[in-house]
Design a protein that fits this description.
Blueprint: E1 2-5, E2 14-17, E3 27-36, H1 39-45, E4 61-66, E5 69-73, E6 76-77, E7 91-92, E8 104-108, E9 112-114, H2 121-125, H3 128-141, E10 149-152, H4 158-169, E11 173-178, H5 181-189, E12 194-197, H6 203-211, E13 214-219, H7 226-231, E14 233-241, H8 254-259, E15 263-266, H9 272-285, E16 291-296, H10 300-308, E17 315-319
Parallel strand pairs: 10-11, 10-13, 11-12, 13-14, 14-15, 16-17
Antiparallel strand pairs: 1-2, 3-4, 3-8, 3-17, 4-5, 5-9, 6-7
Helix pairs in contact: 3-4, 3-9
Length: 321
């Protein structure tokens, strides 16, 4: 089979022949038709991820066929039996196990789920990791209810964008932040009420005036700006955080936290049950993931460059024919 292989860090993918994977007991062999990038893939190529083992085929997201039927892949391995938190053995597909940037993948049979009928290969491949992360953050952790006001930070990224789509489908009033006016405009066209550019010094105060406060905030950055998000919460608000792009959180006021009864809720990926529930939610509301751009598998380095530039609005997808 053909695959994109990381043989060395800080070097381009190698598009090369690899042995066809042989399923072990309990596993199946899926022929992939599309795969999608996540920020995780970039961090691995740059050596900024724990326990990197090379060579490896990256990719957590994929859609394809099993026994002639369209399927989508649950991208978590060994979540465990506790729905509240992943097990110590938990890991994400695409390191250390080979992932979806290939023509074939061997995967536990339970990780293969029917593909939503209204999606094509590329749309389905764009869904798993981002959709699962957004679903758990919004519904399991933050307990989003219809009619609540939601703020999604960093819209344009894969998880943030699908979180916005999910919140809108659930009947929430959604606002967004971004460092790009163009991305804010696109989010508004998709149904967001308004947005704020976090590069402006008074963005939080202006947003507070316009929106009045938020019941749920979804963030992936952390860093110094996280304190501004806390200032925007309503009493009883919930902040769901699934990433830490900007590093440690400084300047957080415990007085605001306890007096407003605000909850800060960490979230990572999700269980197989949540994945199935997410797929049902997507099918019910006929949600279509946003595709930023699409590349052939052999053009994976060009796709990675697009991801590195942070200009994307939606998912970057690989076509595998």
């Amino acid at each position: 089979m053909k695959a994109l292989v990381v043989n060395q860090l800080h070097q381009p993918f190698a598009y090369q022949d690899m042995p066809d994977p042989v399923p072990e007991p309990g596993e199946v062999l899926v022929r992939l038709h599309a795969a999608a990038f996540n920020r995780r893939d970039w961090w691995i190529t740059q050596g900024q991820y724990p326990k990197i083992q090379l060579p490896v085929i990256l990719g957590s997201d994929g859609s394809g066929t099993l026994d002639g039927k369209p399927v989508v892949i649950y991208p978590a391995l060994d979540w465990g039996d506790n729905p509240r938190v992943q097990s110590k053995a938990f890991r994400v597909l695409g390191l250390p196990e080979d992932g979806t940037f290939a023509e074939l993948i061997r995967i536990p049979g339970k990780n293969v789920q029917p593909m939503p009928e209204h999606l094509d290969w590329e749309q389905a491949a764009a869904l798993p990791l981002a959709g699962l992360t957004a679903y758990r953050t919004l519904f399991t952790r933050c307990r989003l209810e219809p009619g609540e006001r939601v703020l999604i930070s960093g819209v344009g990224g894969g998880v943030a964008l699908v979180a916005m789509q999910f919140a809108l489908a659930a009947g929430a009033e959604v606002y967004v932040t971004s460092g790009s006016a163009e991305k804010i405009d696109k989010a508004v066209q998709m149904g967001a009420v308004a947005g704020a550019n976090y590069r402006e010094s008074n963005w939080a105060a202006d947003l507070k005036v316009r929106a009045g406060g938020f019941d749920v905030v979804v963030d992936s950055a952390g860093g110094d700006g996280f304190a501004d998000l806390l200032s925007l919460t309503n009493p009883g608000g919930r902040i769901g955080i699934y990433g830490g792009t900007l590093g440690k959180i400084n300047g957080l006021s415990p007085q605001v936290l306890f007096w407003r009864q605000v909850s800060i809720l960490g979230s990572t990926m999700g269980s197989l049950e949540e994945f199935r529930n997410m797929l049902a939610f997507v099918s019910q509301h006929r949600i279509v993931p946003v595709i930023d751009s699409s590349f052939a598998l052999e053009d994976g380095n060009e796709a990675l460059g697009r991801l590195a530039g942070n200009a994307q609005f939606g998912k970057i997808v690989l076509q595998i024919r």
